[in-house]
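Human: We require from you a standard protein entry with sequence in single-letter code and fold as C-alpha cells, and nothing else.

Assistant:
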Amino acid sequence: PCFLKDWELHVHFKVHGAGKKNLHGDGLALWYTQERLVPGPVFGSKDNFHGLAIFLDTYPNDEATERVFPYISAMVNNGSLTYDHSKDGRWTELAGCTADLRNQNHDTFLAIRYSRGRLTVMTDVEDKNEWKNCIDIAGVQLPTGYFFGASAGTGDLSDNHDIISMKLFQLMVEHPLEDETVDWTKIEPSVSLLKSPKDNVDDPTGNFRSGPLTGWKVFLLLLCALLGIIVCAVVGAVVFQKRQERNKRFY
C-alpha cells in the first residue's frame, strides 16, 4: 500500500499488435485502488472499484463516438459507479485526451501525478523526451493506503499490452496545518466538479464541455437575451429623458 499524500507514478509501457485500423483491442488500465487486483470486466479488473483508474482505451465500442482512439481517460469511483464499456466509459469519465500510443517504434511513457487534490496525467508518446498534458483535474480526493496496479483486456480482437516499468516518486509538498489532523486512510474517493461527469459529451480534444443545447435551452437563452434588450432599452430611455429635462432647466 502507498501511504504518500503526494506522489507521481511514471509508467513505461508498450501497446502493439498486428491488427490494423480498428482490428485490435481493448486496452490497458492503471489503477490506484483499495482492492488488490481482482479479475473482472473493466480492462481485466473488477468493476465498482474504490479509487482511481486511468484507461488507455484502444478500441471504440460506441460506433457513434466522435473521439479519436486510442483515448486516455480518468475515472474516480467510491464503489457506486459502473464502467459502461458500450459507451467507452463516457458517463463516468472525468476528462480525457487522444494519444497515438499504439505500435510506436520508440518508447512510450505515461505519468500520473496526485498532489494537494490535483490529478494530472501526462504522456510522452511522440519520442520528444518531454511530457505533454492530457488531463488536469482539481478537487480530487484520494486516500492513502491504496494499491497501485495495472491490467489489460482483450476480446475477439487482441493486442499485446506490455508494462516495462512502474516507478513511484514522492513529491515534497507543504500542506496546511489542518491537514495534520486528517486521517488520510479514511478519505472517500471523490471529485468536486462543477458539473456531473454525465454531462460529458464526445470531444476529440479531450476538453470537458457541457452537453448539447436542447430546444428548451435555446428558448431560455433567447428569452434571457430579449429581456436583456428590453431592460437596456428602458434604462436608456429613462437616462435620455432625464438628460432632456436637465438641458431644459439650463435653457
The longest strand covers residues 160-170. Residues 201-214 have pLDDT under 50 and may be disordered. Residues 214-242 form one domain.
